[in-house]
Amino acid sequence: MRLVLPSWLPLVANQAGWFACVLGAAKGVAWVGPVVVSAWCALYVAAADSPRREAAVVVATAAWGYLIDAALVLGGVFAFTPPARLGWPSSPWMIALWALFGTTLRGPLARLLARPGWAALVGALAGPLAYGGGVRLGAAAFGPDPLASRIAIGAAWALTLPLLGVLEQKTRPRATALPS
């Protein structure tokens, strides 16, 4: 018997994981978030119709996120505060956040990601807000020019959401044709 998760659970898990990662990092226990996210990702993948495919989506999203965040950190757009610094240029808790985000591509974000223009707009607006939340909670800091940092993060996310939409679409399970 396959495990079936309620449709609302990925959104709740995403929010809980986000707070575990960001607050854990801000409070100097940056390992808490990755543990929480790993548990959720394992449950999510185990419940999937195609666990291997879902694991690949989660890992690809985390890898892409690592590249984006590494570029932003190396570009001076943002930095991790001392209690949140647990790796460089990105941190395991940030990579966990990206893996967590990968669990939302099929369900909660699928309709948005199917519309690249809207996905880019939402990314441009929501990306800086999410990073700003991490800054306000003490896990990160914007670069010397906070407005330029927000613009750069918005541009990265305006690119990221449509690309993740392509990833979701390309890895979506195909319906099999019925024999005639």
Description:
- The chain is mainly alpha-helical.
- The chain has one domain.
- The protein has seven helices and two strands.
- Strands 1-2 form a two-stranded antiparallel ribbon.
- It starts with 8 loop residues before the first helix and ends in a 9-residue tail after the last helix.
- 41% of the residues are buried.
Set down the secondary structure blueprint:
Elements: H1 9-26, H2 32-47, H3 51-74, E1 78-80, H4 92-102, H5 110-113, H6 116-136, E2 140-142, H7 146-171
Antiparallel strand pairs: 1-2
Question: Summed up, what is this model?
Answer:
This protein has seven helices and two strands; from the N terminus they run αααβαααβα. The chain is mostly helical.
Please name the defining characteristics of this protein.
180 residues, mainly alpha, two-stranded antiparallel sheet, 7 helices, 67% helix, globular
Number of helices: 7
Q: Helix content range of the residues, please?
A: 55-70%
Distance between the termini: 29 Å
Secondary-structure element order, as H and E?
HHHEHHHEH
The average pLDDT value, as a whole number, equals 91
Q: What is the number of strand segments?
A: 2
Q: Note the beta-strand portion.
A: under 5%
Largest sheet: 2 strands, antiparallel
Which of globular, elongated, flat, extended, rod-shaped describes the shape? globular
- Count of domains: 1
Low-confidence stretches: none
Question: Structural class of the helices, strands and pairings?
Answer: mainly alpha
Widest sheet, order of strands = 1-2
Q: Radius of gyration, Cα only, in angstroms? A: 17 Å
